[in-house]
Amino acid sequence: MVRLAVALSPELERRLLPDAMEHGHQLVARASSWAELRAGLGEHAPDVVLVGAGAGTFDRALLTACDALGIRVIALADDDRQRAAARSTGLHEVLGSQLGWSELEPVVVGLAAPDAEPPGPSAVRTIAVWGPAGAPGRTTIAVNVAAELAAAGGRVALIDADPYGGATAAALGLLDETPGFAAACRLAGMGALDRAELERLAQPCTTSGAQFDVFTGLIGAARWPELGAERVATAIAAISAQADTVVIDTGFSLERDEELTSDQFAPRRNAATFAALQAADRVIAVGLADPLGLGRLLRGCAELAEHVDPAQIDVLVNRVRPGALGFDAYGQVRSTLHRLGGIERAWLLPQDVRGADAAILRARALRDAAPRSALATAVREYTAERLLGGRGEPGALGDGAPGTRLLDRVRRRAPHYA
Fold first, then answer.
1. Which of 105, 162, 235, 329 could form a disulfide with 184 if both were Cys (CB 3.0 to 4.6 A apart)?
2. Which residues pair with 48 in a beta bridge?
3. Residue 228 near residue 267 (C-beta atoms within 8 A)
4. Which residues contact 237 (CB under 8 A, 6 or more apart)?
5. pLDDT tens across 307-342, in order?
6. Are 94 and 53 within 8 A, CB to CB?
7. Rounded-to-integer distance, Cα 413 and Cα 70, Å
């Protein structure tokens, strides 16, 4: 038997409470708002508080009060926006309000994890963003993919695991005095990386009403020995256990020559990149849309395929513009990738100086700084199609010619892309 306190909509009460009573649970408090419920917590001492995830029935103050008294909180969300808002407060037990009591019962009594109903339909849990040398936009893609995933619902963590120096903190306007991911790796090496430490090290970043956690990267490139292979793998696993989706900004180098040195126990600079790639369900390979950038991308993808299943690799070509590749820049990029690399499908992102500059100047994700820009639209469409299984905001790419609909819109807005 579980002692329940509830703050639910009338419809949810009528549907759920009779079944809860039939399962032998005791209703000790019933309130119409989170404030009313919080006021009676000490008097009624429930084991579990069951609330709607809406603003009227759930608030961070209620969660704080329950945490102080050791009371579990389970929220029922009507949609992805409510789910994301509830999870942004730090609440992990968020379920769909459409579930029946038979599905809620194992969670209420503590026999099942709340993630029996995941926040999103995608099977992609860990995403590594890689790209060759030359600043192709790895951090830009990682930051904005994380923001889009967070806005779609679910708990998202962004990790800066670049052993050559972190950039996510600067891109999002976060303090980088202490590298959060390196600290997580040190604790992982000591076996002390628990949930409390992860919450302490993560910096929250809010975007369009949603929130994701950021583990900032190295302050200086000289600190790369802190990112050992085993430590990085353990830290990623620990973060993945607390988040629904993890996005990792990796380094560019895939060299293993350092392992040929006489000291086989010395730290390896690229170990963090290899550990991130091995942990990933999906790898986003980012390259630049110019002759030099495409050459680096093609050679890099061939090398990447030696470490990652090619079926897990998505190729994104950034900064597509006619100046570097002629009149039909999009056609030239697709033709080059197919002819020289056998890459039949790639996602093409337009050069969008105004949108990118707005994001840099405001130190925000594109969906906040320039939500209607061409680059924001392209990233949103890729995320919806490939990482959310078609779920998300309208405008998925769709028709077998990636970027076609986006290109038509870009041409209408800015003829110089034609």
1. 235
2. 4, 72
3. yes
4. 279
5. 999 999 999 999 998 876 666 888 889 999 999 999
6. yes
7. 55
Q: Per DSSP, what are the bridge partners of residue 73?
A: 49
Residue 159, number of CB atoms within 10 A of its CB: 34
Q: How confident is the model at residue 82 (pLDDT cuts 50, 70, 90)?
A: confident
The contacts found for 9-13 with CB under 8 angstroms, 24 or more apart, are 9/52, 9/54, 9/57, 12/52, 12/76, 12/97
Query: Using CA atoms, how far apart are residues 89 and 325, in angstroms rounded to an integer?
Result: 47
Q: Cα separation of 268 and 162, whole Å?
A: 13
The whole-angstrom separation of Cα 172 and Cα 387 is 22
Q: Among 116-120, 183-187, 345-349, whose mean pLDDT is lowest?
A: 116-120
Contacts of 284 (CB under 8 A, 6+ apart): 127, 128, 129, 130, 141, 145, 313, 314, 316
pTM of the model: 0.66
Scan for tokens 């550990």, then name that residue: 275
4 close to 30: Cβ distance less than 8 angstroms: no
Question: For position 260, what pLDDT does the model report?
Answer: 52
Structure tokens at 44: 């009624």
**Distance of alpha carbon 379 from alpha carbon 318, whole angstroms:** 10
Identity of the amino acid at 410: V
Taking the alpha carbons at both ends of the chain, their separation in whole angstroms is 67
Contact (Cβ atoms closer than 8 angstroms) between residue 83 and residue 77? yes
Q: Are 137 and 285 in contact (CB under 8 A)?
A: no
- Asked if residue 347 has pLDDT above 90, the reply is yes
Specify whether the CB–CB gap between 233 and 203 falls below 8 A: no
Sign, CA dihedral 117-123-126-131, equals: negative
In 3D space, the residue among 368, 366, 363 whose CA is nearest the CA of residue 169 turns out to be 363
- Rounded to the nearest integer, the mean pLDDT of the chain is 84
Burial of 73 (0-12, 13-18, 19+ CB in 10 A): buried
Token output for 358: 């707005």
DSSP H helix total and E strand total for the chain: 19, 13
**Cβ atoms within 10 A of the Cβ of 110, count?**
11
Residue 359 CA neighbour count, 13 Å, CB half: 26
CA atoms within 13 A on the CB side of 410: 26
pLDDT tens by residue, 109-131: 875 445 444 344 345 789 999 99
Helix (H, G, I), strand (E, B) or coil at 15: helix
